[in-house]
Amino acid sequence: MINRNKNNNFLIKDSIVETPKILAEDIYNTLKRKPFKNILDIGAFKGKLSNPFTKKTNTKIIGIDVIDDYKDSFDKFILKDYLELTKKDIEGLNIDLIISNPPFGKHLEHGELYPHLFIKKTIELFGENIPMVFIVPQWYLSNSKKRMDDLNKLNITKITYIHKNIFNLENENIIVEASAVYINIKTHKKHTFLSFDKNKVKVKKKRIYKSITLTEEQDLFLKNNVNNFNKYIKELISKDFKDFPKVKNKTV
Asked: In whole angstroms, how large is the CA radius of gyration of the chain?
């Protein structure tokens, strides 16, 4: 997920927003009795969204992302931009469930929100009947007539409305109104609400340093010239700080 400030600029520190455990568990509990065995996690990163599904025996998790720092956390990993994925890339995988916490921002080239592009790409690759769950911003569901017309064509079977502080549980300074949209998956309830007990769950403390903003032109430059932004930044920091802790690959 990519977070933007009020001036529509990207925030470097929020370029990756991880899926909170409470949300991943809620999606898993909704689907755990379904016969899904091969799950594709789009924009997987550490695999926090798909991790609960590892509880099920004989279930394989396939991750896809433009960052491969945590590729060993998956049964199979595809290092590629999902929008550039082809049917040849997924030959023999027999995917029966798609899950994704995509970037919330707008794709500069396509001029559309990433969640919508990802959903359309999923239908292109796997057909209109593939079961899928996408975490989307609230405005995705309402602020575009064309998009709403497209959504009306989908078999949306459930929407979970997510408390705005849920993402803040594991991501500093992130407060966002979002929903989990279930498509082609039969469920008992069509609308649910996900919240938490503030007395039992601690919210992440704010960072003590200021964020750095990029203009859209600067962000586009980085996209065209830096393949792995996080790795690039870590390497720059490591040059000045020899004791900078290295990331260990592990299932999270």
From this structure: 18
**DSSP assignment, residue 50?**
T
**Contact by Cβ (8 Å): 61, 54:** yes
Distances (CA, A) of 70 to 33, 56, 78, 101, 221: 27, 21, 11, 16, 25
Strand residues in 47-170 grouped as ranges (E): 60-65, 76-79, 97-100, 106-107, 112-113, 132-137, 156-162
Q: What is the DSSP letter of 104?
A: -
> Do the beta carbons of residue 175 and residue 165 sit within 8 Å?
yes
Does this model's pTM top 0.85? My answer is no
Helix count and strand count (H, E) for the chain: 5, 12
> Which three-class secondary structure state does DSSP give residue 14?
helix
| Residues comprising the chain, all counted | 252
Q: What does each C-alpha distance from 81 to 78, 84, 132, 140 come to in angstroms?
A: 9, 5, 18, 21
In contact, 216 and 8? CB cutoff 8 Å: yes
DSSP per residue, 155-174: -EEEEEEEPTTSGGGTSTT-
Q: Look at residues 47, 107, 247, 67 and name the one whose alpha carbon lies nearest to residue 118.
A: 107
Segment 55-95, tens digit of pLDDT: 998 999 999 999 999 999 999 999 999 999 999 999 999 99
Return the C-alpha torsion angle 192, 198, 202, 204, nearest 10: 70
Q: Does residue 178 contact residue 138 with C-beta atoms inside 8 Å?
A: yes
Whether the CB-CB separation of 173 and 206 falls below 8 Å is answered with yes
- pLDDT tens figures, 102-137: 998 888 888 889 999 999 999 999 999 999 999 999
Token pair, residue 220, equals 């586009």
Tell how far CA 131 is from the center of its chain.
16
